[in-house]
Design a protein that fits this description.
37% of the residues lie in helices and 19% in strands.
């Protein structure tokens, strides 16, 4: 699970995972994105892969250096086995069915859902907690049934904003504690410059491994390049600022 407050980059990180698996490794990926159009996702993949500023792809035709980068990146992106489904409010049964269809056409090695709060429950519940608990447990069953990793993004509530360092915790996952309980891995994103554009840590992002069922927890500081729709490793000689 990838969780963060709005504008911290959870969709960007999810799409980066999809790109890494589908483009760099050539493995089939299914990405459900009820909030974003297929074109928006394609632009973000191309921006990150070609290192082309996202707003250039959004507002104008590529020219000059952008056109050369676009031409070089397009064959890699075009042959990637990345299937994007933008169905509004799908339920887990629809996601499972799509996975099975992909298995008959060559397989699926990674399922990503961005964001889990946009999924529909299979039946009506009296409260939102019950709906999300069912969704969480159902996605866990899909992962076990298909034997593949399932990565979901989730929103955090406002609690981190009440803390001095705005440090997120797994208990901040919005509306339902079942996500924290069911997830094998919980990664929280924190970026100081979202709250303070003048922060000395502008451009940095902390990926906080807050839960890891089969390994250690910890923190990884990376660079966030929003204009290129990507997270990347910091330079080897870079010293993160505190």
């Amino acid at each position: 699970m990838i969780a963060a407050r709005p504008a911290h980059g959870k969709s960007t990180l999810a799409i980066n995972l999809a790109r890494s698996c589908a483009v760099a490794e050539g493995r089939p990926v299914l990405l459900f994105s009820p909030q974003m159009s297929r074109l928006d996702i394609q632009r973000r993949v191309m921006s990150a892969e070609g290192r082309i500023p996202l707003h250039h792809l959004t507002h104008r035709r590529p020219t000059g250096d952008d056109l050369q980068a676009f031409t070089e990146a397009m064959p890699r992106v075009a042959k990637a086995a990345l299937t994007v489904d933008t169905t509004a409010r799908p339920d887990v049964d629809a996601i499972r069915s799509q996975c099975h269809r992909m298995r008959t056409r060559g397989g699926v090695d990674l399922l990503i859902v961005d964001t889990v709060h946009e999924l529909a429950p299979a039946r009506r519940y009296d409260n939102r907690y019950g709906e999300l608990e069912e969704i969480s447990r159902s996605l866990k069953r899909v992962a076990r049934e298909l034997g593949i990793p399932v990565v979901v993004t989730a929103q955090l509530n406002r609690d981190p904003e009440t803390r001095p360092a705005r440090e997120p915790r797994p208990s901040d996952i919005r509306d339902c504690g079942a996500f924290e309980e069911d997830a094998d891995l919980v990664v929280l994103i924190n970026r100081d410059d979202v709250h303070d554009p003048r922060s000395p840590r502008a451009g940095e992002a902390d990926l906080i491994v807050a839960k890891h069922r089969n390994g250690p927890t910890g923190r990884l500081t990376v660079a966030f390049q929003g204009h290129l729709a990507r997270f990347i490793d910091l330079a080897a000689d870079y010293t993160p600022r505190v």
